[in-house]
Amino acid sequence: MQTAAMEINIAAKESLIAPETVVEFFHALNRAGVRYCHWKSNIRLVEGLNGRTDLDLLVDPEHRPVFQQFLAEYDIKPLVAAPGKEYPGIENHLGFDPASGNLFHLHVHYKLVLGEQFVKNYHLPLEKQFLDSVSICHGVKIPSPELELIVFSLRVLLKYRDRDAMKDTLSIRTPGLPGAVRQEVIWLLDQTSIERVVQTLGGLPDIVPASLITDFLQTVTTTPRDGRKLYHLRGQVRELLSGHQRHGRLHAATTYFREAWRRRKSSSTRKMTLTHQGPKVALIGADGSGKSTMTKLLYKWLTWKLDVQLFYMGSKKPSRLSDWSYIVFRMARRSHTILSGVVGEKSLPARGLASLGQMLFYAHHLSLAYDRYQRYRDSQREAAVGSFVMYDRYPLEAPLDGPKIHLLAEGNDSRLGHAFAKVEEMIYQKIGPPDHYIVLDVSPEVSLERKPDHDGEAIRAKSQLLRKFMTTAGHPSASFDHLIHIDADLPFAEVVDQLKRSVWQLL
Question: Do residues 124 and 112 touch, judged by C-beta distance below 8 A?
């Protein structure tokens, strides 16, 4: 079936507007004669090209060096697989299309490794047959529908669990085979026939008998909840493919249950990480610059595949200690108001309570500073394992989320206030700068248009401080990698475009 030059359209009803970079990347592979194919789930090929699902590529190991060159040429970056999803001969790469702002994920296989979740315990030696059978669909090489259907059948049976068989046999809850399985089988059969599938099986190495595949296809298309039949077919597949196992059944079962238990017990599951230490990035800007909006947008954009850790460094999410310290301060302030009304504001008890309230307020700000320091330490650990770290409201000079006690104690001769301010400064000094600052630079005029209820004086003051910071940050002695300037006066879409392009370069 040498039909590499033949253009077929197996998804004619679905329009394709693929991102420019994706299209050019595959065209480059095709022109260079790289032996690869999008080996599974071609029913969702258009979705993959548009960055809505993975692109699963099988690549000839002998063509790996030239394939890697094209990855570098199109700035497609390698990632480390998520915990529990590391399999032999499989790599993960993340690409970005600047024109559309879309990310796309390449799941690159150098071997046909498949099987149950978390294990992928079987290696089918059919790579040559897949790569020899390719044709072109939407500019991408895909295998013959017969081969795809045969391996899809094996994949589905290997993933069929005991509890799926129980559900199907008793007709309870959802089907053991998701509706998408039947849909994909019917879709693939529309591209071929049972006779051609049997013929293709006859030309393959001794994998499974044709009767097993035809039984499975018959069951899926007519009685998809025949749990006994599917369970029996699964047993046959496991026995017939035992010679292609990477590990014994006991090892495979242990691996599966260990990872399933870990995920059940874990409050969060880490996604893919970078191959190097993750960058630590702080978005800063005056009111109306869109800091919170852009932070959320970037987080959603990157967490499609990448492990992103967002650390809020402001004061609106205090720790329990900071929360209680503020409650105690308010109680003291309220008591002072009541006592002053009874014995006079200048009385000794009232002045003593006022001093206590001030001290409690300083203590609250000290606790907030420590909160920020703890989050900073946590962020260092996350970056060390390759996560992309983002900061919201990173502490700079007050009033830009930095130390506050020296401002509160200004004009106050209290030694206590100055002592608290000194301790607060020491805590903030432990918080090193991020690797990169992204400054959302908004003019005071635009800021006031977007935030008409805000104090104009305060907005202008923050704007001046940011300009001063940008000037200082440009000095060669600055202790972080670099500052990225984004013109936040521009329309929303243009700001997003600038931001995505800049962040992509930091990965």
Answer: yes
Considering the entire predicted model, what is its pTM? 0.86
In DSSP terms, 95 is beta-bridged to 104
Contact 375, 313 (CB under 8 A): yes
Beta bridge partners of 172: none
26 and 97 in contact (C-beta within 8 Å)?
no
Q: Number of folded domains in the chain?
A: 2
Domain that holds residue 288: 273-506
Q: For residue 125, is it within any domain?
A: yes
Tally of CA atoms within 13 A in the half-sphere of 454 that contains its CB: 18
Both 256 and 294 in one domain: the answer is no
- pLDDT tens, position by position, 171-225: 998 999 999 999 999 999 999 999 999 999 999 888 899 999 999 999 999 999 9
Distance of CA 338 to the CA centre of its chain: 53
286 and 202 in a common domain: no
Distance CA 276, CA 90 (A): 18
94 vs 480, residue with greater confidence: 94
374 and 466, same structural domain? Answer: yes
With residue 80 as reference, give the H or E element that holds it: strand 77-80
**Which residue, 224, 245, 265, sits at the end of a domain?**
265
pLDDT of amino acid 87: 87
**Same domain (yes/no): 103, 167:** yes
129 pLDDT above the threshold of 80 = yes
